[in-house]
Description:
Elements: H1 2-18, E1 24-34, E2 37-47, E3 52-66, E4 70-88, E5 95-110, E6 128-142, E7 147-158, E8 166-177
Antiparallel strand pairs: 1-2, 1-8, 2-3, 3-4, 4-5, 5-6, 6-7, 7-8
Amino acid sequence: MRNSITVLALFISTMAYTQSGNYASSVGISGGYAEDGYGIMATFNYHVNRERYVQLSIFAAIAEDKGSFDIPYNIFTVQPGYFIKIWEQKNFKRYALNFGGGAIIGYEVINNGSKVLENGAIIDAKSQFIYGAYLGLEGEITLSNDFSFLLKANEYYHVNSDVGNFYPYVGIGLRYFLF
Length: 179
């Protein structure tokens, strides 16, 4: 938990420091596959310069663990992070690849908070606050001065999750540049 607070403090201080540059901001939304189900992510990016941006994301997953019993669960997280451009098409700057990571903090809801499944089985997993870190890769295809097509892949590590420590998300979406 202390590491998450440290990363959040770093994120806030970076945002305060970079406000003087006023380079650009963008918002994005993506949807796609999350382990055992579907996920949706909304992001706000503050672009420090053409090569780096600070990102704040909100992620939600709706899934069902299919084992000996089907157990529905939801994950809701907030993710401060930092990304750098690792590749860009040289001539037209139409394609780019960004890599980053950061902290996550959120809540997982298992079986809608009930300990008893529909068939009467009792589960020992509990709904709880979760925290951890993530690594992300974003592919961007510029559509216009204002819009980009986004391919997003994140791998989460939840330190204390009853669903599982490693949790992937892969999605597609759009990014809109505010200014």
